[in-house]
Design brief:
Layout lengths: L10 H27 L3 H16 L3 E7 L6 E7 L22 H8 L3 E3 L12 H6 L4 E9 L2 E10 L7 H36 L5 H4 L5 E6 L5 E5 L2 H6 L3 H6 L3 H5 L5 H5 L5 H4 L3 E6 L5 E12 L5 E10 L1 H24 L7 H10 L3 E6 L4 E4 L1 H7 L17 H13 L4 E8 L5 E13 L2 E14 L1 H38 L5 H32 L8 E4 H18 L3 E5 L5 E4 L1 H18 L5 E11 L17 E10 L31 H11 L3 E7 L3 E9 L6
Parallel strand pairs: 17-19
Antiparallel strand pairs: 1-2, 1-5, 3-4, 4-5, 6-7, 6-10, 8-9, 9-10, 11-12, 11-15, 13-14, 14-15, 16-18, 19-20, 20-22, 21-22
Helix pairs in contact: 1-2, 1-5, 2-5, 16-17, 17-20, 18-19, 19-20
Length: 714
Amino acid sequence: MSLRTRRRLTPRHTLQRLRHTSRLYALLSHVGEAVFRATGPEQLFETVCRIAVEQGAFPLVWVGMADPVTGEVRPVAAAGPAVAYLGEVRITARPEPEGQGPTGTAIREARPVINNDFFAAPYTRPWHGAARRFDLRASAAFPLVVHGQALGALNLYASRPGFFDVHEVALLERVAGAVAFALEKLADEEQRWLAEQALRESEARYRRLTEHATDLIYRIRLQPSSAFEYVNPAATTLTGYTPEDHYADSDLGLKLVHPDDLPLLLRLTHDRALLAEPIELRWIRRDGSLLWVEQRNVPIVDAAGNLVAIEGIARDITDRKLAEQALRQERALLEARVAERTRELQLERDRTRAILESLGEAVMVFDTDGRLTYVNPAAARLTGANPEAPGYWWDYQPGEGELLLAELRAAARNRRIWEGELPFRRADGAVYDAAVTVTPLFAPDDPEQVIGFVSVHRDITALKNAERMKDQFVSNVSHELRSPTSLITLLAGNLEMLYHRLDDARRLEVIGEIRKHARHLSDLIGGVLEISRIDSGRIATDRQSLNMADLVLQELTHLEPVARRKALHLSADVPESLPVVGHAGQIQQVLRNLLTNAIKYTPDGGRITVTGRALMAPAPADEPRWPGAAGLPEGLWAAVAVADTGIGIGAEDLPHIFERFYRVRSQSEIPGTGLGLPIAAELVRRNGGILDVSSTPGQGSTFAVYLPMTEVAS
């Protein structure tokens, strides 16, 4: 019997249907509670099956998971008087007779499969005998989709044909969705827990890194008296209280916590089970503002098993909590209005339009052909679509627009909301990433007829770019750290094994190699930490009046002995005063980097010339000794150029030398980290200046620093 078949219901049947619907809603409610209490997949599956049988009066409910290698669907939990049925059947998710039934199809195709007449369906023939013995007349299988992949199915059986109508299926889909959500949550929590375990095990090795972490890291001693033993500098940023404030006041950790959340925190010292799970608390900053944090604590016990300390990490999740709250409210508002006001669409059009136009998220309405019929102001600003003539917006979108429209229509027919992330193209041609939620619209006089879609989306381009940059940076750091570490390990091993076979000269040579690579590793770590400080905004921002000419001469004096060892001719042509405003240490670091590079890449006997000038922009066309001067903004600039007669940089490499970890191939034999120039460029930019370069292979390079010039120097 089709799910769309209309039946005339007697009052008795209506009462039965209402009771059954009430039980299904109770089932959904109980499953929702079980999802939030679930501590593991097995316990979750058993609880869901038991609740489904108790609340839904099903003769059999079971959860089957597909073996990823064999395709066999094995029951992992079951409940109901007909549970023995599972011992008599074989079910797979492969395209074979035993895999063509509701369960196998639901897993293989990741969609619900409803069979309202078990014995009329030819694809259920392998199980007819067992189903008759247990009086199973109808079944429904719902895939458990975790991170986009159907891993198994929730299966429910009824004792009469035609049991599963549209309403039951919709509710049971929500039950299966809740179970799949719990599985994703458990998997994510397991991954986070494993990551935290690794972090705790390596704490001693990476203690220096904790000093630069954005999360608050702490250790609290409980015995013989309570006190903070360690708090990293992030405490000041997050709470306004310095580590010294924590050390001075052993109760500060309690005073920070919002009074309503304090009982939960106090339970940690009495209930160790809580220490194994992350907890979310509200803190009150020094300035009185509210901060949401996620705390992850580790119990430290002595040999007798007594709790003597707690170590943990507190992460600022205020933005996430506010975003979750706003998203829940926004989604609840939209879903409620779509569900409750469909029949009154014509009467409520003006009111709905006013609500949509007040939203900060982009809202777009399409008809079933994909034609854009409405955009709110936020959508017009984001997409560039014309609110007066929206037109066929999908025609100029990247990707398979028609396939996506077909998927949206299928979701609407099943009364489902579609969610995902998609690339979109604005009217000006720019492409951006968006998080999208699409809800079907139904005719006011026929709730079964889909008349269009409402799309809500927001721009997540910055978030995606940040994720890609983070992944690339982590990959580069891992690669760069691995090489010197491997060489140090290899050389140290050779020295240990061959120590007695080597003469003193060879031993010193190996030790020298080890020290060289250790210095390279130290430079690399220092560069990574400097990049981290710059990216996180933890570098000094104070500025003062400076004489850039004095800074140049100081660095030249400091590096002159180094240049002399290579017989380099080091000269300077700098005026007495080049007044600028900036951070002295950062500007000196830039000059030191440029001079050190010039010495490093200039062969013995070469020449290094440092020139200082006051330049008025706009300047004439670039000349070799002042690269980038022609592009300076209008005004007076203090300019310092470092020119060498070194090996130079090829035209194909010049556009990339300020990229992190980029090394010029022709210079690969000279030690370096590929971070010096990116750091120098960023420091110059943060001091309001510009760093540029010109170079000719085999003749040398010129790096020029430009900073806005002031009238007088300090």
